[in-house]
Automatic annotation (TrEMBL):
Record has Nuclease as a keyword: no
Record carries keyword Plastid: no
Protein name: Biopolymer transport protein ExbB/TolQ
UniProt record, GO biological process: protein import
Subcellular locations according to the entry: Cell membrane; Membrane
Length: 245
């Protein structure tokens, strides 16, 4: 930000301020922020992409009514029909929870230890899919704030250097405008960081909820299998379910 830039900003602020439209205002503030706005914009674009993708996965594709799913599964386990239990799970929407439970049921003929091992292995395989990329939101939020601060500090340094040799009577006005414009980077950084950090908290909570559902349901199903194993009419894994694996 040189002296000419500061002077131009002063003219723009005094002449066109109230008459500027929304997009003109955004464009002017973007230009005033100079290079500091670009890394913040990059953080914003990546953060928005992660927010949308993770929301679709965590609140849509990976979501299932745990209680209703478990009620339907219990009926087949209580009836001692392993085939129907596996086919019931295979017929549900493919989610991390159903994938874990299906892996456990597929190993019922091998014994309780194998069921436990299969549940644990499937949980370890599915959990990273739930946790993927959410942590980047916190990093991007912090990076946006720091980039905004860096852009503001850089702008302030240039502003003070620019007014060093101007008329003393104009210094206060030019300095005020220069500081105001330099703060655009901080403002844009905060506008990027706040939604990113809020989304990080919400998505992290949702992630933990899904993981808790997997752990709780896995233990419940394992206990049901152990308690009702003597009721199973057959211990053959259905061909259709095996093919899906």
């Amino acid at each position: 930000m040189d002296l000419a830039s500061v002077t131009n900003l002063t003219v723009l602020a005094n002449v066109g301020g109230p008459q500027r439209g929304f997009f003109e205002e955004i464009a002017m503030r973007w230009e005033a922020g100079q290079w500091g706005m670009y890394p913040i914009a990059a953080c914003l674009i990546v953060a928005l992409a992660i927010m949308v993708e993770r929301s679709i996965i965590l609140f849509g594709k990976a979501s299932i009514n745990k209680e209703a799913f478990l009620r339907g599964l219990k009926k087949h386990i209580y009836a001692g029909d392993l085939d129907k239990a596996i086919n019931y799970v295979a017929g549900q929407k493919s989610t991390p929870l159903t994938n874990v439970i299906k892996a456990g049921l597929m190993n019922v003929p091998k014994g309780n230890d194998e069921v436990q091992a299969a549940l644990d292995e499937a949980s370890l395989r599915e959990t990273p899919k739930i946790e993927a990329r959410t942590g980047y939101l916190a990093m991007l939020g912090n990076a946006a704030m720091l980039a905004g601060l860096l852009g503001t500090v850089s702008g302030l340094i240039a502003c003070f250097e620019a007014v060093a040799n101007v008329n003393p009577a104009d210094k206060a006005a030019i300095l005020a405008i220069g500081i105001s414009e330099a703060m655009n980077c901080t403002g844009f950084g905060l506008l990027t960081a706040i939604p990113a950090l809020i989304s990080f908290s919400v998505l992290t909570g949702r992630t933990q909820s899904l993981i808790n559902d997997i752990n709780e349901t896995s233990v419940s199903v394992l206990n049901l299998i152990v308690a009702n194993k003597d009721k199973f009419k057959n211990l053959n894994v259905p061909t259709a379910a095996r093919d899906e694996e």
